[in-house]
Amino acid sequence: MSPNRSVNRLLQYRTCLLKFQDLGFEKVFSYNLGEEAGVTPEQVRKDFSHFNIKGHKKGGYNINELLFTINNIFKSYKVQKIIVVGMGNIGTALTQFINFKNNNLTIVAGFDINPTALKKKFDIPVYPVNEMGNFIKANRIKIAVLAVPGPAAQEICNTLVTAGIKGILNFSPVILKTPNNVSVKNVNLIDELEGLIYSSVLS
Amino acid sequence: MSPNRSVNRLLQYRTCLLKFQDLGFEKVFSYNLGEEAGVTPEQVRKDFSHFNIKGHKKGGYNINELLFTINNIFKSYKVQKIIVVGMGNIGTALTQFINFKNNNLTIVAGFDINPTALKKKFDIPVYPVNEMGNFIKANRIKIAVLAVPGPAAQEICNTLVTAGIKGILNFSPVILKTPNNVSVKNVNLIDELEGLIYSSVLS
DNA sequence: TAGATTGTTAATCGATTAACAATC
DNA sequence: TAGATTGTTAATCGATTAACAATC
Predict the structure, then answer these.
(1) Nearest to residue A153, comparing CAs of A181, A179, A128, A177?
(2) Do residues B81 and B108 make contact, with C-beta atoms less than 8 angstroms apart?
(3) Beta-sheet pairing, A167-170 with A143-146
(4) Which of A91, B41, B74, B162 could potentially form a cystine with A86 if both were Cys, beta carbons 3.0 to 4.6 Å apart?
């Protein structure tokens, strides 16, 4: 497995490549990508080397080829079914954002303690949390977005893991305990803002 | 300035400490915090050392004291005024989440291209983007959350920077160019999910 | 006191950067 | 060809881990 940092940057390069493609470019050199992504050209080439991505000596990288290769690495050619747990403000917004934006990532269902109490209209089916385990197994869901209040997070996480979830995008302000074949990415909005304030105040 | 990683972990420790406090504990040892946060006890002590945080030899760390010290480092004792640009689903959800959750971080205003067209009721005043610069200057805002569509992001970012913003939490799928006295934290939800799929599929 | 824990210094590890041969 | 760029190997840098003296 390639280092995590490289994986993140590879996704950033993709964002840059899409922009270049949009501008009508056909190829890039490592220093173009580096400049756009805010890293050195050596970093770009080193990252590509990790994934065995080849360019053309002196000729740089063909943007379409490169995007194809990267999308292949991330299996972006096939639809990935995802569920959202916790259909509050954040959960609902994420669902709309992801389903509207992208066609390989699809939120197929939402879960909440008591969906009928929410009195909202959703774009996806929303079921009570106690049906979650069966749904995950029946649909072989591997990825879940967790957007429930802190105190509920660990218990729901356990249910997710038991049902077969392998990756969790966690918006709850809790550090989840999971077996190490389950990966967790934390997005703690308060912490991000605090970190920003920290670096802004001192500099 | 202390290393970025340490800053992030310090914020995580705070989350853990709040949990411990909630459970009625009064003190922790470095291995308690380490276990809870998923790092080694040495890492915890090293991080504290960066910020010159002192415990008690053999006696561990008093939770209240420690929380006070950490909150002090992040200036959490005083209200931080923040604005949100882009009052779509994500922007609106973030506003509600942050204002509801925490009382030192306050979203004081939102901005959108054409607020009246949104036909939504907001909990905060929402103004058109062209009033943004003046508002930032008049209220000495230093932190902004950016949640606008990709193509609009860089231009709005430039306006923010010119008006005096020093930190940007960026939800737009764009790598922003800013002068190096302005810090940017990117939250790219699609990338986070793709990264999760990458690690889940391969392991 | 003896055992346990902190705080720091030294050693290791991994990631980034520099250098350069290969080559188009 | 000469100059420019890739891809990889070596050197550097920084962050994590280990070791241990201080001490309660």
Answers:
(1) A177
(2) yes
(3) parallel
(4) A91
Q: Are B154 and B176 in contact (CB under 8 A)?
A: yes
Among candidates B11, B89, B190 on the partner chain, residue whose Cβ is nearest the Cβ of A93: B89
Q: What secondary structure, in 3-state letters, does A25-78 show?
A: CCEECHHHHHHHHCCCHHHHHHHHHHCCCCCECCCEEEHHHHHHHHHHHCCCCC
Q: Gap from B36 CA to C10 C1', in Å?
A: 28
- State whether A189 and B19 contact (CB < 8 Å): no
Q: Report d(CA B88, CA A196) in Å as an integer.
A: 22
pLDDT, tens digit, 9 for 90 and up, residues A110-165: 999 988 878 788 999 999 999 999 999 999 999 999 999 999 999 999 999 999 99
Task: Kindly report the backbone phi and psi dihedral angles of residue B161, in degrees, each rounded to the nearest multiple of 5, phi listed first.
Answer: -65, -45
Q: Hey, is the C-beta of B154 within 8 angstroms of any chain A C-beta?
A: no
Residue A73 to residue B137: CA distance in whole angstroms:
45
| Residue B79 touches partner A, C-beta closer than 8 Å | no
Strand D footprint nucleotides (protein C-beta < 7 Å): 3-9, 14-19, 22-24
pTM (2 d.p.) = 0.94
Q: Does residue A76 belong to the interface with chain B, where contact is any CB pair within 8 Å?
A: yes
**Residue appearing with tokens 């986070």:** B192
Any idea how long chain B is? 203
Which residue, chain included where needed, has tokens 């050199």? A29
Q: How far apart are CA A28 and CA A26, in angstroms?
A: 7
**Residues with Cβ within 8 Å of residue B197, at least 6 apart in sequence:** A74, A75, A80, A142, A143, A167
Q: Which residue, B81, B158, B84, B128, is CA-closest to A93?
A: B84
Q: Which two tokens stand for residue A8?
A: 């993140």
CA distance B62 to A131: 42
Distances (CA, A) of A156 to A68, A149, B13, B92, B175: 36, 10, 22, 26, 34
At B165, the amino acid letter reads I
Strands B61-62 and B27-28: antiparallel
Q: Which chain A residue is nearest to residue B83, measuring alpha carbons?
A: A193
Structure tokens at A55: 């360019």
pLDDT digits (tens, 9 = 90+) for B91-133: 999 999 999 987 799 999 999 998 887 878 899 999 999 999 9
